[in-house]
Amino acid sequence: MLLHAIRSRRSADDFPRTEHLAYKIAEVATDPVAVEPETAEMILNRIIDNAAASAASVLRRPVTVARQQALPHRAGQGARVFGVDGTYSAEWAAWANAVAVRELDFHDTFLAADYSHPGDNIPPLVAVAQQLGVRGADLIRGIATAYEIQINLVRGICLHEHKIDHVAHLGPSVAAGIGTMLRLDAETIYSAIGQALHLTTSTRQSRKGAISSWKAFAPAHAGKVAIEAVDRAMRGEGSPAPIWEGEDGVIAWLLSGPEHIYHVPLPAPGEPKRAILDSFTKEHSAEYQSQAPIDLARRMRDRIGDLDQVATIVLHTSHHTHVVIGTGSADPQKFDPDASRETLDHSLPYIFAVALQDGSWHHERSYAPERAHRPDTVELWHKISTVEDPEWTRRYHSTDPAEKAFGARAEVRLKSGEVIIDELAVADAHPLGARPFAREQYLHKFAELAEPVVESGEQQRFLSTVENLADLKGGALGGLNVLIEPRVLDKAPVISSGIFR
Predict the structure, then answer these.
(1) How far apart (Å, rounded) are the C-alpha atoms in residues 228 and 91?
(2) What is the pLDDT of residues 384-443, one digit of tens each?
(3) Do both 12 and 130 map to the same domain?
(4) Which value, to the nearest 10 degrees, does the dihedral of the CA atoms of residues 259, 264, 270, 273 take?
(5) Do 141 and 220 fall within a single domain?
(6) Cα 14 to Cα 18, 28, 373, distances in angstroms
(7) Domain enclosing residue 223, as ranges
(8) What are the pLDDT digits (tens) for 339-387?
(9) Looking at the structure, do residues 316 and 265 belong to the same domain, yes or no?
(10) Is 316 helix (H, G, I), strand (E, B) or coil?
(11) Are residues 333 and 296 in the same domain?
(12) Are residues 9 and 125 in the same domain?
């Protein structure tokens, strides 16, 4: 990997375009290096994982809204919308499908200086590939690039400390991935990246306080914007430049300012794109930093015994976990039984309480209003707090995969005065966890989540398409869309009409 020093520049500086971060990313996107088998295998796993999450969410209101917005945008040679037949304009298909993927917080993650769900790259790339008749092998190459760029931006540039939402790294990665997939030149990709970043910087209020369904729409919006940016760039339109380093650019005014230097790693020429292998998926439908605590709660419940005897529970964890989903956020909504599902998904005290009581986690039952209102749950929930532990923060940011951790140490104090302590560094499903996810686990997750809404024959047809993706010719990628019987989709909420009909 090459480590690039990135800082703000004055307009009067001699700063050639080839030195801009956007251009360096474009050069990575145009590198014809082959995709290694291990990377290609993980890409197939993540396509399956996205379909599993989409199946579980397909009847939920935000997903239904996004689908209804997309359906009026029919296109003769277009892309597919998850669950339904027909072809639609690529940017709208990407919009609907990305909301379905993101709605339940149930797909992959990468955490470093910032946060990300790199599986958000897949819906826009698949939609463009379907509309333009791209070969399966080129889709795989594009996804490898998109993961590489987003993950390395997350490694090098912290957005959240400046209250910028993490989808600001997603717009450029989608643009770069589409560029690789379509074999565009570096100048075109450069312009698309600049436009995509310029139009996808937004505040983190979407993940603060009373969290709404926009949390699911935000990455879909970034993907849609990136598709449109690539389209404009392909027609010869330029972009604000240099977008990161400019005197009035992202670093100078949205991030750490003109004096700060960021270090962004990117593959050297000819170096394989392997970043996807450093990301990890979820066994539980909840914010990633709660994955290990859920498994820890399941492990501790027998040792604790009667939960009525709990006096307090303190979770010692990283700074990120404490301030984003813990009591360090100072969000009273995280203790409100009437809070939205999105808010409860970002409440570690709620999640730990329910996991302790149930010994399991479910993407619907664990968030049900009647579940959140149970008096014994509310009582236990309010006994739980988080604190930052510098060692957990250090491990969170470690670059050593064997040491990097997103867990916690739980100190449970009983009314008798007894203290029960246990800790878990990584989730059971993590590559270093007790039950690491491999193809078998991805298939099981898909089968479990798809079974209520997707017929078995359609499940097998989809999985066969994914398995043979590398050999699929142009025009055959429509098979990556899962079809759902209309009688099942009829169970979705009734949505009032809007502008699009």
Answers:
(1) 7
(2) 999 999 999 999 999 898 999 999 999 999 999 999 999 999 999 999 999 999 999 999
(3) yes
(4) -160
(5) yes
(6) 12, 23, 62
(7) 2-278
(8) 999 999 999 999 999 999 999 999 999 999 999 999 999 999 999 999 9
(9) no
(10) strand
(11) yes
(12) yes
